[in-house]
Amino acid sequence: MSGITPQEIKREFLKSKMGIAGIIILTILIVTSIIAMIVIPIETFQEWNNPGSWILYPKVAIPIWINLFMVEKIPEHKILEDPNIQNILQDEISLTSHQFGLNFDYDYFPNDFIYVFSSEYSGSPLLKMSVIRPDGEKLELLSTSLPHSTSKTIHSERIFSTDSAIKKNLVLQSEKFQFPIERLSAEDIVFSKIQSNEPLKGNYIFSIDLYGVNSENQIHESKLIIGGKAFGIMGTDELRRDLAVGLLWGTPLALFIGIVVSIASVVMGLLYGVYAGFKGKKTDETMMRFNDVIYALPALPFLIILSVTISNSIFLMIGFLMIFGWVGIAKVARSMSLQIKTRGYVDAANMMGQKDSKIILKHILPQLLPYAFASIAISVPAAITTEAGLSFLGLGDPSFPTWGQILHDANTFGAAARGLWWWIMPPGVMIAITGLAFVFIGNALDAIVNPKLKR
Fold it and tell me: What is the pTM of this model?
């Protein structure tokens, strides 16, 4: 091993198709992690388990790209946040109007529609909601007064399509339709053709008008949600969470867990094994017997016990994984150290009176660095899959959206039995791809540093 230089390792590695493939996959994962940390606000990550943060998202919606393969298009869930705003003040009457444009081009009715707003006003302004359909028909949806206030106040509210007032207003306009609408939901009426109860495709304009007297009313927050059955690149889960957020944030978390655990385990194992092999005699015997005790402990059951009895914090889990990860490395490092310490330059260093620590750090450990790099790469998948396994069993840290935690939630809500494949397959595939990248890199390095593996 002493004859292998970094230049030779690099040259041999670049000849390995497996190693190059691993580097490409790892680069993609690192870029994905950087993009996730830059694009997705940290607040979204922190609110992963807060149901209130996802209330405007659909429940168990499929990914939107599924529509590319569908003959009949499934309605997408849309959150419209940029209305066309008009403010008019005339004859002591103020009008604040928000208009939302929607291109509806689907073969099924939406699930619902919701208007979310926060307004600042005084008095008791009138709120009117209407929609202009693609066929030119205008339907009045709602006309209601906001709670009276003698001074400036801020009022927040959500108006749902299930509101009885909306259904009553639509029934009063039933003469515009050529079929009975009394038993239909509000969204089925609004998005229906005049002749029959079939979806009407085209451009819709939803208008929200706020009228006030002797006051200038303002609408600060204004969102129109058209409920659909498809949302986002990766769909949503039972708790309405955008699975793309969890998958993207799971990438840096998985790399962090795998790399930190593997580096710490390899460093600990190398130092422990090299010192035991170099010192020899009773020191070696004592240290190796302790190593055997740790090695004999069943890692996964012991980790489960520790997680249940102490804590399921992700940082404590990383510490537990380090405790069980170094023992195998130590055995190999010891055997290598026994061989290297018999070489002439080590004997010369001893004769010159160099300290044991200097001999280990300067003459022995550098010879083991190629093996260390290979061991780090090969150890990463084990750490990632162990964390995923603990999280899947419900023993992980629920405050972090790791891939294992996503699979645990999917199992809890019976995603497999319900056919919610977009909740199960992506995290499983990401775990496999990440592990495969490091296995490719590790095997390529192992074949270089271990001549017996070369073909």
Answer: 0.82
